[in-house]
């Protein structure tokens, strides 16, 4: 599960203007946070230039609720969770799609624009 952080590489590709003390909140499901994500969350928090901090939720459905109420700014979702968000009436904007590569050396995930 350490590959889950490779999913978060898109953070580096987000073209976000970070103003003053504004930190964007990334929601991560708790079960994903158990796999050394805490270290990565700490690195995001400690890096003054990251502009991103972690919000830990019990699961991705809670991440959807946190997005909807404004307690989180973005997250990583699977297609079925996008369907649930649509059925719940939660407005989401998909900015990137991650594609998993099999049998490609040195590449696990890549951002599709």
UniProtKB/TrEMBL annotation:
InterPro entries linked to this entry: Transferrin-like_dom
Signal peptide range: 1-20
Keyword set includes Signal: yes
Domain Transferrin-like: from-to ranges: 24-113
Top-level taxon of the source organism: Eukaryota
Presence of the UniProt keyword Hydrolase in the record: no
Annotated keywords: Signal
Name the record gives this protein: Transferrin-like domain-containing protein
């Amino acid at each position: 599960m350490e590959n889950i952080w490779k999913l978060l590489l898109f953070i580096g590709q987000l073209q976000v203007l970070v103003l003053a003390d504004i930190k964007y909140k990334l929601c991560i499901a708790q079960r994903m946070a158990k796999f050394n994500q805490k270290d990565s969350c700490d690195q995001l928090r400690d890096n003054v230039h990251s502009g991103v901090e972690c919000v830990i939720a019990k699961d991705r459905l809670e991440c959807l609720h946190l997005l909807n109420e404004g307690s989180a700014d973005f997250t990583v979702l699977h297609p079925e969770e996008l369907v649930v968000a649509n059925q719940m009436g939660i407005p989401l904007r998909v900015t990137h799609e991650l594609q998993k590569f099999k049998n490609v050396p040195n590449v696990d995930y890549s951002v599709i624009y």
